[in-house]
Amino acid sequence: MSNRVYIFDTTLRDGEQVPGCQLNTIEKIEVARQLEKLGVDIIEAGFPVSSPGDFNSVVEISKAVTTPTICALTRAVKKDIEVAADALQFAKRGRIHTGIGTSPYHIFHKLNSNPEAIIERAIEAVKYAKKFVEDVEFYAEDAGRSDNEYLARVIEAVIKVGATVVNIPDTTGYCLPSDYGEKIAYLINNVPNIDKAIISTHCHNDLGMATANTINGILNGARQVEVTINGIGERAGNTSLEEVVMTLKCHHDLAFETGIDTRQIMKTSKLVSTLMRMPVQPNKAIVGRNAFAHSSGIHQDGVLKNRENYEIIDPVEVGVKESSIVLTARSGRAALKHRLNVLGYEFEPEELDHIYQRFLDLADKKKDISDEDLEILAGRERNEDKCPLKLVSLQVMCGKSIIPTATVQVSFSGDVFTETASGNGPIDAAFTAVKALVKRRVRLEEFLIQAITRGSDDLGKVHVQVEHQGHTYYGFSANTDIVTASVEAFLDALGKIE
Ligand code: KIV
Ligand code: ZN
């Protein structure tokens, strides 16, 4: 048996059945083109009889992509098959995917039928589809809960009339990995003509076992897997393409191959997530925002020493530029130094200690420290050393119905000076106090406060521009306390006056 595993992507059919995730034809074409770049073997483009939109999408996707086989879904109903064949008329390689339920639930309670009549309908559907296309895939819906002996009879019968692929869906996501693997092994061992078709897995994720079931299907002889990008699909979703592909790639000892260009994975994930307005959970394997992010000091140190200490996949392999070291209050000096180096800063150990203390202060106030925050911490380190005026303490009183008042303590050449003033707001009060302390005639020409990123816990960046005797001086600071940042920026500018 070959070790090539065919990737059948059903993002645009089973994936698109998610409420609120419907795409228009233009969007589906964009996804199909990206799936082609990703290297999937088969694109299930829709269920043409279900709506004119689905019919049209299968037609347009057939025209838009060249390499993958285009597949259209049908029930075991003649009209469905005719419409699917019509929709596939422009496909370079077209496949009809037809089938019927084979579990007792489906046979008796959905189709109101009996096992023998179902086998007849399955045979008729495959025979009819064969009149239109050579490549016919048969699905035994709810195979996961179907009796293996009966399932084997159905599969033998449809292969006899020409099914090229036989799909064994765990429609309700009920199977344990061991049960699903045994089911595939049972078919391999008990269907006499099984070598004439490829067995396909199609697992739903209701118990969170879709990937495990799919992998066990492959280990037991399946050579096609039906998957979706980001694992989207009905209810808890389908098996996720990226998880299966990367599992096979990581476990190269198993020697399975796919045609997927794994570097396209992240791009495809983002496209599907954006177009379907379906965010990817941050801790989702392979494509989640945190999949390659290290936040604890011990892990960060380990990753910086050797990425493989804590990573089994090189992020570059899935199209992510690099692993990220998320700087938080739990990060150590090694992580801080690394990130500063990446940003182009080199510091002596003593300077680094200083910045690390500031970093910890900030990290206590702010959840994640961004590169912009670091630039500011690093920049401040340099400015502060040069500035002769240092803010020792600042106390402000402000609020509704009180006069804003500020008490400022500034050190200059080793002496500490204190001044209190009021103003029309806390910053005005503090600036008035500073001016009284510095005793210079300065005019504030510009004053700008900006939040750097998002939340209310953000750093405020302050730029000031002051005029003194015809010269302009600039000052800058950043702090989560914007009054402190403003006074520091003001002192930074004043400190530059000769
Ligand atoms: O889950 C399922 O059984 C299906 C079939 C229509 C293939 O999606
Ligand atoms: Zn399904």
Sum up the structure in keywords.
3 domains; 8-stranded parallel beta barrel; 498 residues; 3-stranded antiparallel β-sheet; TIM Barrel; alpha/beta; binds 3-methyl-2-oxobutanoic acid; single chain
Bound molecules: 3-methyl-2-oxobutanoic acid, zinc ion
Amino-to-carboxy terminus distance:
83 Å
User: What is the chains' assembly state?
Assistant: single chain
Radius of gyration computed on alpha carbons: 32 Å
The main β sheet shows up as: 8 strands, parallel, barrel
Count of discrete alpha- or pi-helical segments spanning 4 or more residues:
16
Structural class: alpha/beta
CATH architecture descriptor text of the largest domain: Alpha-Beta Barrel
Shape category: elongated
CATH superfamily of the largest domain: Aldolase class I
Spans of 5+ residues with little confidence (pLDDT < 50)? none
